[in-house]
Amino acid sequence: MPALQQLQRKIRSAADLHMVVRTMKALAAVSIRQYEDAVRALDGYYEAVELGLRAVLRDHPLAGCAPQSVATVALILGSDQGMAGRFNEAMLDFAVDWLRRDGNRQETAECWVAGEKAAGGAEERFGKVDAFFVLPTSVQGIAAIVQEVLLRYEKRNTQGLCRLLLFHNRPLAAAAYEQQCRLLMPPDENWLRQMAGQRWPGRCLPMVPAPWQEAFPALISEYLFVTLFRGFATSLAAENAARLAAMQRAEKNIEELQANLQARYHTLRQTVITEELFDIISGFEALGGAQGPMAKAKKTTT
User: Fold this and answer.
1) C-beta of residue 109 within 8 angstroms of C-beta of residue 73
2) Threshold 0.90, pTM exceeds
3) How far is CA 235 from the centre of its chain?
4) From the record, what ranges are coiled-coil (predicted)?
């Protein structure tokens, strides 16, 4: 009986854990949808900013005029919550390898991290975390964290020009994800040259009423904001995709454990019932054997 009670407790615990995993799985699926919808909603605005840059750069190409930066700031997007597999470890390893291939040691680059779970690993790999940002819990909080990053970068540029690299995961099909690096500031010269060389999509050529010295920085600021917003949104979508995959594996393991526990419970219960039946039969036979001579003696006296 104690063994049966212990198995029953394990079965109840497995059922409770299964319910928690299914709830987290559903939340991850819903979160992926909202972040992917946010990225798609920005596609039109992103294209409008690119068209504005193409219009400005059409008559004032800036390729080759960007000042060279000597310092590097690596902004790494991780996660604040666990149960996402190797989401943070894969991102940090990718950032270290990318900086090494780029000719920068990770100890010399400034490390900015968004996500509590990634901060510990970044401190081990980079030596220290120069800036930490708390990830938003919904789409509505992304704009505030993007503004915080931009203000921090503007303050950092007062100490000397530096380039800003964005490292983040982006979701793929079937709840998978991959690592990505983007140069945010200063704008890449190849990208500027490509923007300036593209043909205008319409027959009417654009006219920019504002001076290009004002229009270009304004458009670059909007481009930087949109790119950072999309980076945070895609990273959060990839995080939930990783969590969804982890919950799917956990759900499969729990279901296998439940089936195993149920089989063990039924086998043990059948064994206990069989032993009890044998005890009853043995007791009955023993009781019948003891009453047999007494019944014969009583019959003889009568």
Assistant:
1) yes
2) no
3) 7
4) 240-267
Distance between CA atoms of 114 and 228, rounded to whole angstroms?
12
User: What's the average model confidence in pLDDT over 14-43?
Assistant: 84
pLDDT digit string (tens) for 168-185? Answer: 998 887 667 889 998 888
- Which residues on adjacent β-strands are paired with residue 183? 165
Instruction: Please confirm whether the linkage preceding 171 is cis (ω < 30° from 0).
Output: no
What are the extents of the domains in the chain?
2-19+251-263, 22-200+207-249
H helix runs in 107-141, sequence order: 116-126
Please identify, in words, the CATH class of the domain defined by 22-200+207-249.
alpha beta
3-state class (DSSP) for residue 112: strand
Strand order, beta sheet including 71-77: 131-133, 110-114, 71-77, 162-171, 177-185
CB 270 within 8 A of CB 7: no
Q: Is 9 exposed, middle or buried (0-12, 13-18, 19+ CB in 10 A)?
A: exposed
